[in-house]
What does this fold into?
Amino acid sequence: MQKKALIYADKGSAQHSVNLTIKALKDFGISTQPVFAQDIIEKKWEKDTVLFIMPGGRDIFFHTLLSGKGNNKIRQFVKNGGFYLGLCAGAYYGCESIEFEKGSSLEITGKRELGFFPNKATGPALGNGLFQYNSEIGAQAALIHYSSKNITAQAYLYYNGGCTFENPKEHKHINILGHFNDKKMAAILEINFGKGKAILSGVHLEYSHEHLDQKNIHLKKIIPLFKKTEHFRKKILADVISKFFP
It folds into this structure.
């Protein structure tokens, strides 16, 4: 049986992020299957899976549905040699704790069970008070400085409420792949965890300018920036995928 990627598609997942991630991996010849919380908890999916993806969306629902056995299975899957990719909400979820919109009506704080990153994810990384659920009002073109052993690139990537990571340089098993504009805040982490690996991204690697609403008033000004560096976005995405599927 061909080994595949699974992507969480249950409550809390943003359907657009799920769809675009499936499309992005398909372009690299990778089969990606949507999976629901009960499947994660009850079925034996680990043996035939290379990569588990937690997409953008709302982390609090992931936490509600997967606490306990679900999270333990994902954690053990990675510890035993599997891979985890967390995008935006999925990046928050892969950390030991989260702090989102602290002090506002949208505040979410608390411990998380996966704990691939052993510190806190904080956000929105590019400023509180801008983000709104189901809206592009807080969307930004985040200039990401990306560097790995294979490539160095800069690209504007779609950002909407994503996180940065508290003190990642404290840990030798963590490599910072991407920084936000100021080169101080980490945007993308590569984390060795047991025999496996987790990559957590506070920005959406899967979004091309072609997937954005060209008529949306909040996106019109930033879409040209995405177009300008689309070639480099694809290179960054390809480099990340190569870490899971050499």
The mean pLDDT is 96. Residues 77 and 129 are 36 Å apart (CA to CA). The first helix runs from residue 15 to 26.
